[in-house]
Design a protein that fits this description.
Elements lengths: L18 E4 L9 H14 L6 H5 L6 H12 L5 H19 L9 H10 L3 E5 L4 H11 L6 E3 L13 H10 L6 E5 L2 H10 L2 E4 L12 E3 L8 H6 L3
Parallel strand pairs: 1-2, 1-4, 2-3, 4-5, 5-6
Helix pairs in contact: 1-4, 3-4, 4-6
Length: 233
């Protein structure tokens, strides 16, 4: 979704860097802990229990895949109707948690501000659905992004497939090869790499394997535009 506030602003390029594409959960805000609560409670609502190890496999997943996995874990039939009702319960529980101000990841707000002040194009690329993303944006701020791409806006071709990042680049009018994506999860990192981006990986709850076009940092603290541009080599 284009951001009307930033539409019409002239865009800059810094040392070959045209845009920064940001993941949300676990990268900008520490919302994965809130997803923990919603998923554990939904598993109990379904009559079962989700282990910590099982929960970790869902980091970066989309709503339909998450719902199907929960049904499998608790031993219930995985039908379209069951996926829909489970997804609705997850949304209900998560919305209540996202209504409050979300905790920022270290350095995230400052990094977003640096990119915006430099005039670089910026996109939010998340597996979270639009209705929940809008709640999260009440904390993060919509003005940081020229476009936002949510998990229910990519024709079912969610991370780790490249479509979310390709769509963000298309909406921004940039070449993915001239973009840096910022991610924390294996599916998100794989998605951005497959789209052609260089990825700044800030691991959070789940380790991310080393690989092509992946640069690792412990946090976003001290990350500015020259540092992001330098990642493109």
């Amino acid at each position: 979704m284009p951001n009307a506030v930033s539409a019409g602003k002239s865009a800059s390029t810094v040392d070959g860097l045209d845009a920064v594409l940001w993941d949300m959960d676990g990268t900008l805000v520490d919302s994965e802990k809130l997803w923990d609560v919603a998923l554990y409670e939904t598993a109990e609502w379904l009559g079962g229990k989700l282990s910590e190890q099982q929960r970790m496999t869902l980091v970066g997943s989309n709503m339909d895949d998450t719902s199907a996995y929960l049904l499998e874990v608790v031993g219930l039939p995985v039908t379209p109707e069951a996926i829909a009702s489970t997804g609705a319960e997850i949304r209900r529980r998560t919305a209540g948690l996202f209504d409050d101000e979300l905790p920022w990841r270290p350095g995230a707000r400052e990094a977003l501000t640096a990119v915006r002040e430099a005039g670089l194009r910026s996109a939010l690329v998340t597996s979270t659905e639009r209705v929940l993303t809008e709640l999260a944006l009440n904390t993060i701020g919509r003005d940081f992004f020229d476009v936002t791409v949510c998990g229910d806006e990519v024709e079912g071709l969610n991370k780790p497939l490249p479509r979310p990042y390709l769509k963000a680049a298309e909406l921004l009018g940039v070449d993915p090869a001239r973009c840096v994506a910022v991610e924390d999860s294996p599916p998100g990192t794989a998605s951005a790499v497959a789209a052609g981006c260089t990825v700044l990986v800030i691991p959070n709850d789940v380790p991310v394997d080393a690989g092509e076009r992946r640069v690792f940092r412990d946090s976003l603290v001290g990350i500015d535009v020259p540092a992001l541009a330098a990642l493109l080599g």
